[in-house]
Design goal:
The protein starts with 6 loop residues before the first helix and ends with a helix. It is about 75% helix and about 0% strand. Helix 1 packs across helix 4, helix 1 runs antiparallel to helix 6 and helix 4 packs across helix 6. It is globular, with a radius of gyration of 18 Å. It is built from six helices and no strands. With about 180 residues, it is mainly alpha-helical. It has one domain.
């Protein structure tokens, strides 16, 4: 298996690493970073692929918003995570981004399970999920998973989703998928 250290792969890794670093440092992926990356995506594709790269850029940027907005609306995923996917999709295009997103969610599930086991809160989290689903059923509609007034998540109850995104990008650029 040969790993291609192309400019594109190095860029994808840089986006993912800097985004994860920002997320750990401040709990947010800053909009100036997202805007800078989107502009870089656009100009890179215009330079490399010409005007023919614009539809792929647009599809890759729009796909995460279309697919992940429900998770944002229900407060299960942050806007910053979706914006990082948009930046990655701008270069990768929708076809290569979709498997990356699936690997990210798989890595996120594994990481969450490990942290819940480590912090002894697995039963508590599944109980919360059951209560949430019961409340949605009783009220006959989808509700936010976490209400804003509930304060901060306890240790082991929330992950920085930029980490599973980074894992996915490293696996992708390493030729694993």
């Amino acid at each position: 298996m040969s790993v291609s250290l192309s400019v594109e792969n190095m860029y994808l890794c840089t986006v993912a690493v800097v985004s994860a670093f920002m997320d750990f440092k401040s709990g947010k992926v800053r909009n100036y970073w997202i805007l800078f990356c989107l502009m870089t995506d656009f100009w890179y594709l215009l330079f490399v692929r010409g005007a023919g790269g614009i539809p792929g850029f647009a599809a890759g940027v729009c796909l995460p918003v279309l697919l992940l907005f429900p998770l944002f609306y229900l407060r299960m995923l942050s806007a910053g995570d979706i914006k990082v996917f948009c930046v990655l999709g701008g270069v990768m295009g929708a076809g290569r981004l979709l498997p990356c997103m699936m690997v990210s969610f798989t890595a996120g599930a594994v990481l969450s399970l490990v942290l819940m086991l480590k912090n002894h809160c697995l039963v508590q989290r599944f109980r919360y999920l059951g209560e949430y689903l019961g409340k949605c059923r009783r009220e006959g509609k989808l509700l936010p998973y976490r209400n804003p007034g509930q304060g901060h998540w306890k240790k082991g109850e929330q992950i920085h989703f930029t980490v599973p995104i980074l894992v996915s990008i490293l696996l992708y650029t390493g030729g694993i998928f």
